Amino acid sequence: RKPANVLLVLDTSSSMNDEKRLENAKQGLDAFLSQVAPQDQVGLTMFSDVITPLVPVGPFRENKSKLKETVSSLIAEGGTAFYDATAQAYGTVRDLADRDDRINAVVLLTDGNDNESKRTLSSVVQELERQDDSSTQVRVFTIAYSPGALGARKALAEIAAASGGNSYTGDTKNIESVYGKISSFC
Predict the structure, then answer these.
(1) Threshold 0.85, pTM exceeds
(2) Can you state the percent helix, strand and coil of the chain, rounding each to 5?
(3) Model confidence pLDDT, tens digit, residues 73-121
(4) Residue-averaged pLDDT of the chain
(5) CA 164 → CA 42, 63, 160, distances in Å?
């Protein structure tokens, strides 16, 4: 496959403490990172009620240890703003997409409904639908993680469909395999 620009976006809201969701999500991210190709560019952003870019999208060869170290140190606190996190992540990857012929993707995991975003679901979906199917298209792959994300599943599916990506459901038992499936697309 072509090299990829991938931004991993992880919910670190306080509900991620329940059922050891964050700990299991970290293992899922490690599984994803173990399947990344050396020529890919990968970054990491966390969000709760605040969006925090942690590792800029850059060459995986250079970012690998920083990504693994950062993932292991994540803690959960705050609310959930995945509409805002999606829009910001999409913009970040879109800005990289013009550079060369790469797969462009955002992989977003959340365990609950959005309760903090300034943006609406419809505004995010409209922005994603405006992009074309060109080589610079940014696909968003979403993961509704845990029973708490059941209400968010529809919104996550709309986001993924608007971008040409896929939506998934996961839980603490299968999150590594979900990330593994997604890694085959990006």
Answers:
(1) yes
(2) 45, 25, 35
(3) 999 999 999 999 999 999 999 999 866 689 999 999 999 999 999 999 9
(4) 95
(5) 20, 27, 6
Tokens of 139: 């696909």
Query: Between the CA atoms of 169, 163, 89 and 116, what dihedral angle is there, to the nearest 10 degrees?
Result: -60
Tokens linked to 123: 């505004």
Q: Token pair 């059922």 is at which residue?
A: 19
Determine the pLDDT at residue 133.
75
Mean pLDDT computed over 40-57: 98
Contacts of residue 130, defined as CB under 8 A and 6 or more positions apart, other chains included, come to none
The pair of three-digit structure tokens given for residue 24, joined into one six-digit string: 């299991």
Sheet holding 4-11, edge to edge: 51-59, 41-47, 4-11, 103-110, 138-145, 167-170
List helix spans (H) across the chain: 21-33, 60-72, 82-97, 121-129, 153-163, 175-183
Beta strand 138-145 pairing with 167-170: parallel
Q: What is d(CA 140, CA 32) in angstroms, rounded to the nearest whole number?
A: 15
